[in-house]
Amino acid sequence: MTALLEIKDLVTAFHTAEGRLPAVDGVSLSIERGQTLGLVGESGCGKSVTAMSTLRLIASPGRIESGSILFTTEGESIDLVSASEKQLRNVRGGRIGMIFQEPMTSLNPVFTIGDQIAEVVQLHRRVTRSEARTRALEMLHLVRVADPEQRLDAYPHQLSGGMRQRVMIAIALACEPELIIADEPTTALDVTIQAQILDLLGDLRSRLGTAVLLITHDLGVVAETCDSVAVMYAGKIVEQASAAELFRHPLHPYTIGLLQSRPDLDNRDSGPLATIHGMVPPPQDFPSGCRFHPRCSYATLPQCSSEVPLLREVIPGHFVRCHFAEEINL
Ligand code: SF4
After folding, report:
1. Which protein residue's CA is at the shortest distance from atom 3 of ligand 1?
2. Residue with CA at minimum distance from ligand 1 atom 5
3. Which residues line ligand 1 (CB under 6 A)?
4. CA torsion 164→193→92→29, rounded to 10°?
5. In 3D, which of 167, 126, 124 has the Cα closest to residue 143?
């Protein structure tokens, strides 16, 4: 079966005074209909640039240098890298919805909530103004906004952060997209609202069959919501597997470090959290060989600093970019 979204060898680089900075360096991912793929890693590893590249929202001095992004619906494939602006307008907000981290900066402060949802509907569907407003009201009901009739005429600043994020989800879903790209959709929210929003996304996915590309640094969120996971580090995918397999059996030292640095809520006496020493290097300072080697506690052999590891299928369906994945697998 053809994947709904297939990203192949994507390279997105920024051309600055410091030279060419490849923030996304040969990333390949695929998402099936109705599936949720988690793209995880620390800040600065290239997750958001991957998401923005998927909708060709990268602004200068960044640009997609190579690769393809095939989006296949109703038997028709469009390569979003080479698509015309007209095709992209049809896809963005219509067939692919996007939810950003901070709804206050994504919503327009001078238009009401109802107008902003209705505008998206009118842009992508042949409907009258009043039909679009009815759809906006339906969407506010769907995302469980309290008092939706009143909220329709509210402005963004009159809503709480959790409500604004629900409105962003309503906008993203208003045209029943086949795919939602959600970039840290719950990071700015408190834990209770976070759980409600994730529940809501899961519920909508099962009812409408929407696929989700979920970008997050939070492995707890991935464990609860995703079918499969890709771990990204310094512009590259370093590990990819089903969520169940990756959590049961992580094989890349970076993934192992991320999992060990999660708080163990079942064991509050488990002592101080483990950390991965150092930081994700910026693209101008990517190390030679394996980009993780300066931080890797398994890096004992010269290959780590001299040879770039390939992403290999170490066990069926489980891909790892590490020279020693088999030893870690023992
Ligand atoms: Fe660590 Fe070497 Fe594997 Fe890189 S290749 S993750 S440095 S063990």
Report:
1. 322
2. 322
3. 253, 290, 292-293, 296, 298-299, 304, 309, 322-324
4. 160
5. 167
Q: How far is the CA of 265 from the centre of ligand 1 (A)?
A: 29
Instruction: Give the residue whose CA is nearest to atom 7 of ligand 1.
Output: 293
Atom of ligand 1 nearest to the CA of 309: 5
pLDDT of residue 273: 64
Q: How far is the CA of 324 from the centre of ligand 1 (A)?
A: 7
Domains in the chain, ordered, with CATH? 5-226 (3.40.50.300), 255-263+273-328 (no CATH)
How far is residue 263 from each of residues 17, 162, 251, 266, 269, measured CA to CA in Å?
40, 24, 20, 9, 11
Query: Model confidence over 173-203: pLDDT tens digits?
Result: 888 899 999 998 877 677 777 787 788 778 7
What is the structure's pLDDT at 16?
92
Task: State the Cα–Cα distance between residues 30 and 5, nearest whole angstrom.
Answer: 6
Burial of 266 (0-12, 13-18, 19+ CB in 10 A): exposed
